[in-house]
Structure formats: C-alpha cells, structure tokens
Amino acid sequence: MGAWEAIDSLRLADTWQGLGGQLGAPWICDVTRAHACTERYEHREALEIYQRLGTQFPQNLHVLLGSARGHLLLDNHRDAAQHYEMARQVDDCNMSGMDLYASTMIHSPHDQALHQLNELAQSLMQINPERPEAWSAAALYSDLKGTREDREQALTFAQRSIHLESRHVCSYVLYGYLALSSGYADKAISAFRIAYKLKREILVFQGLVEAYLQVHKVKDALTVAKEALQLMKNDPKALYLIGRVLAQTGEPGRAKARKAFTNAIAKDKYCTDAVVSLVRLDIEEGQPQDALKRLEKQLEFDVFFLLLLLLLLLLLLLLLFLLLLWLFLPFRNMF
What we know:
It is built from 19 helices and no strands. By secondary structure, it is mainly α.
C-alpha cells in the first residue's frame, strides 16, 4: 500500500464527522483520494476527482497538473497538452511535469511539434537549466528533427537529464524510448530496469516489453507483462501488453492475444493500442471486413480513427494488389 492509499484508508472525512467536527476543507480528502486512485492505477477515477476539484479551484497548479497527468495516462494527449498549457499560464516558472508536457507535443503535426518543442525547451532552459525537464524537452526536439546526428544528440540530452536528477523516472523512460528507436535495445533495457526499480508504472512496463521483444526475448517480455497485469488490474494497457506479447508467439498465441485486446477495450473503449492491434490481427488473418467494421465502430468514439481507417485501407489495397500479382504471375509466364 502506497502512502496516499494509506492516508485515504483512514477515511478522514468520516473520522472528522464522527468526532463531531466540521469538515472545513473537504477538498483535502478529495486530493488524497485522487492520489490514492493514481497509486491504484485507477486513472479515470483520479481524473474525475481532479476535474471536480478544477471547478472549485480553476487556477490551482496542483489540480491542473494532476488533471493533465490523468489525461496523459489515458492517452488523451490533446486534453493533457491543454491542461499543461493552462498550468504554465498559472505559473510560467513551474518546471514540474513539463517533460510530460513536451511528450504530448510529438503527437501534433511534425512542423507544429518542432516549433512547440523548440519554444518549450528554450523557455525551460531560461528558467532553470539544472532541471531534468528542460533537457528532456530538448532531447525530444532534437530527436524529432530526425537526422542521425540529431538523434544521437537527443540521447546525449536525455543522459544529461538523468545526471541532473538520478531518481527522476521520466528521464530514464525517455532515454529508454530514444535508445530503442535508435536501435540500442540493450541500453534501453538498462534504462527501463532502473526506472522499474524507482517506480513501477505502465510507461516503464511498456518500455521493458518493447525492448525485450526487439531482442526477441519473448519469455522475459511475457514475465514483465504478467507482472504489470498483476499490479495494475484496473489498467487496460496492462491487458494490452499481455496481448502484445502473445501476438508474437505464433498461431496458438493469437487467439489469446485477441482475447486480451478485447478485454482491454471492454475496460476502456478508448484504448487505442488494443483497437489498432485487433485491426492488425484481422488483416493478417485475412479478415479485412472485420477490420473495417471494428474501425467503423471505433469511429463513433474518436475522430482520430478516421486517419487510421484511411491508412489501413491503403494497406489493405496494397495487400490485395500483391495478392493479385502473385496469383496472375504464373499465368503470365505460360505465354
């Protein structure tokens, strides 16, 4: 049990009222409960509490950062970015959470993301170049520029972030993902393992799973995914991780992977990774109509999937073209 969960278990509001006292600051209990929900990986419940607090304290930095993180953990990158920006307007010298703010920007169109990250990195450097958040933003900006030299520089910036604060989990996670995308799987695994020792959260488990899969250590990846599910029963992303690994184990694992993805979506219909993975399975198993139906259903929830639909339709057309080419090529050779 974490510290916030322990405090929340005391049921301060009930105790206070039971002693005949007036609860002069009920928001204290709400803040405690929000933190406890986060520790239990109940991110949607935590976000709902922060949103209620936001109506009472619309300019409170702590509440805005809590709401932003809640949106981020639910993959609502646009809403997360909006709340981080609101937090900056409240306190433009605040550094907490600004590396997470930077991570939301990479989901914008490329040129817009470059401009936003450049601005944020420069601003944070001016406020305090000795904080890891500034160097994390600079690392993301450099990585997004895309050249080999820029990506190597991004790794250097991420290392600088780690050196400035050795217990800052986000810095290790960032370094891990940058190393993984640059082909340094062993370095990524080392970074994610350190992050794992500091804090067991879903981004750390995701990173470890992807790193192990990249070096074909499926058994290790499955062990990590199972631990994530055991620890985070309320997080649909943990179910997604199980499916992600099982999908790599050949035909027997595909049915189990499909079940894991389906269960993840049942817990959270906005679980994008699980939906995309199911669509991929449908296409790989020669069921394009099922893939289209699944995407059409998901479009009711999120316009973003229109882009995915177009992309997957193009992929489907390419697969059909290759299939036709393969079928008719033997006949062409007969004449």
